[in-house]
Amino acid sequence: MQILSINVSEPKKIMFNGKELITSIYKKPIEGSVEVGEIGLKGDRQADMKVHGGYDKAVYAYSYKHYKTWSDKLDKDYQDFGLVGENLTIDDFNEKQINIGDELQIGNCIFQVSQPRIPCFKIGIKMNSREFPKMFSQSCLLGAYLRVIKDGTISTNDEIIISKKEPNSLSIYQIAELIFKDINNIDKMKHALDLKYLTEEIKERFRERLMKLGDFGSL
Question: pTM of this prediction?
């Protein structure tokens, strides 16, 4: 795997349906290298820290290979990096092959996979499609949030090495399926609750769902 683009943004105001919103989803590529700290990339700041950013979601990675999927589905030709608001556009970031807890070495930094992206309505504004948030969710091609385990510097064209595989974990894709599609799979949700490096945000979703399904054993 290789970084094709590093994208950042400060929060900016946009108008939508006559209302003013603040968002950082319109990320733009930067040249050269960028410093990486515990809560993300230098020059990048999130507008809503309740759903983006922070230690567990410091950096968002997405696959350039998925751009073709959305180009075909929306009849567009998406090529500009930062399409879905990702920090790292990676040539082929395969959610089915990368697990929660896996560690990625990029430059002199180490990142850890923490959870899939949970899209909000703003991605529909970015893609100019009311249907896109649902399409995005149901595809389970959501990319992943990364924790910063070792800070330092990364650069465009850096190779990405999976330096540690988390045993007995679930893939990013499997967690996304549990959240959005395989919503009654009690056994797999219980497995997910045992994953050391899955975020509390996602675990809480599963606990609430298990409770609604009448299973209180993991609560």
Answer: 0.92
